[in-house]
User: Fold this.
Amino acid sequence: MKKLLCDKSNRKTIAILAGNLNTYYDSFLSKSVKKATLERDINLLIMICGSMNTDMSYKYEYQSNIMYYMLSEECVDGLILLPSIIYNYSKKSELSNILQHYKKTPLVTVNEPVEGHPGILVDNSSGIRELVSHLFHEHGKRNFAFVGGPKNNTEAQIRLEGFLQGMKDVGLEVDPRAILPGDFWKTGGVKAVRQMEESGLPWPEVIVCSNDYAAFGVYEELKKRNITIPNDIAVTGFDNIAPARYSFPPLTSIEQPLEQVAYKAVELLEQIINGKSVAKKTVLPTRVVYRWSTACSRWNLKCSGKKVTDQLEPQIKFKDIELKNRVSTWLEQFKTVNLDEQSVRVTKEAEFIDLLYLTVSRHEDINFWDDLLFNLRYILDKYNKVDENFLTIMQCRIAEIRELFLGLTLAKNSTESYVQAKAVQRILSVFVKKDLKQEISDQIPRLGIKSFFMSMYPRPFNHKKDETWDIPKTSTFFCGYCRGEEITLPEKTLFHTRKLIPENISLPDEPMAFIMMAASFREAQFGYILMEASIEDEQVYTNLGIQISTAYRSILIFNEREQKTKELNSVLEQLRKSNLKLEEMSTHDSLTGLYNRRGFLLLGEKYHEMSLRNGTDYILFYADMDGLKAINDTWGHSEGDKAIRDFAKILKSTIRDTDIIARLGGDEFTVCTPNTRSDSAQVIENRLFENIEKYNINSGNQWKMDFSIGHVIHSDQPKLSFFEKMSLADERLYNRKRSKKAKTI
Assistant:
């Protein structure tokens, strides 16, 4: 069966069901999986699925959940699954539903064991135990608190167990009130600090957080209370995301080997696809990265978290072979050089600076040098060659280069942000589908996205949280391009949704990675977007997808309003012609000047049809003059006619000019008020009663005017015809009339 991105070489395609690429964990893991798949000549789909059934980060995040069910064996050969994002904030039964959906597809899980499937796990316990031991023995800490994660998350549970075991290892008891719930977001850390303050317990010496985002929330709340870190309270995190290094103070954290996790997951999945047996569980170690949030320094061996080694080869692989060779040569020379000689020191420092600049120019990881210098310090110390001044100078040079690197990065990001903002502005400015297609083809390639495909369902549909997904079986290709070539297909060309893109679209014969997300707006699902993962900043994809979906929704609204305007104008034109005909056919009552029964029916039916078409409401009133016969019998028919004319005038003064009034015959009247809210019925009746009362006071007549009234609201009886509504209003009128008579007896 044909797979997405299939080519003549029979290249495999796998997918990772990720959460939200705006988080460091999902972003870095997805990038690492992309790197691993492309190196292995495998295609990749990165599915932005969102956390299951949650609105924590965004009210309508659950709309991304459609991506969990979007794939099948028709378009992928295997899956990498992150179970935690499925039941962090939802029921574990959701995982069973997804596993059932992919029961025929080879599958590897990451960081969560799932029965029947191989899993790549991280040792979430030992790092926390080491951290507790270090803070107890080396820093004399005794009072600890812990901020947890989502209650359904296995990793969060294991990290808590590791903390409790670590406390037990050093002989400390834990007050249950010092174990605080969290959610793996800053909000959890914020709430935890507030809960600590309200608990009545003294502030802890250390707050151990189950992830870095929670620690940032703790930072925020402690600073509001003028509690300093680490002098008053030490804080630790987990995951060692990029902001941990640059937070203030830099955050001590436990690093997961995400790149190793990604490579191992791809390796195992490829083996399963090829019919090979693999281990059911692979556990990878973590590493504590000590920083100033626990008063630790990288130059302190006890706080290093590193193993000192004589191995002088770089532990981080450089992509650039020339740079790697030059670094290796520079390191090897330290075995024989004499740093006491000034010329040697100057030469080695100059070489070091050259290598740093080369690292930046070749887009390598500048953080590599921090780890390398740590090992170099202890190796030089071992050979009695250590020179503190020399090492300090190199450390300063690294800081200078990092500042330069950050400056270059900021400048690059500023330029890219301007290009992105301009592209988004152009995309959001259009109101026609043709123009949106053109702007996508013009603007998105400028952002570095090499290929783009957007497909739409035959009809948009609304989806509510917790509803079962019913994905349309077919889709239409909306627009796209591939490697600079715009794709043109006949409009409304249908293809099977499970294929993801039409089969007649040709792709390059090379491994490709795509990011796929839902095209949705609030409750509405329109279709889906595929973008080639060809730029580093993955947040751009999410932002673009949201903006393009918003633009598409605006176009639909604009088109819908245009269509309704055309229909309204058409109806109004029909009404104008009908009015002319009604005039010609003498459709007015000669006594009052109001419409007669025939005129009212013709005009009322038009308003009824317009309400059904446009979804507007109207109210139909039936009124009957009480005591008209007595007026005729007592004061003559001329007074009776006067009463009828005056009642008609009162009706006209009570309602709007756009409303329809008719005298159906004798003492019977009817009123239709289009585009009226349902709660206006009682207001109109009350106004009519007030006007009648004023008339009786000021008219000077020997008789008093009185009436009974009933009404029907269109939206309460949407299935009834206009004529049936008239009958119902008449029935309600006479029910009131009978009730009035009963009260007077």
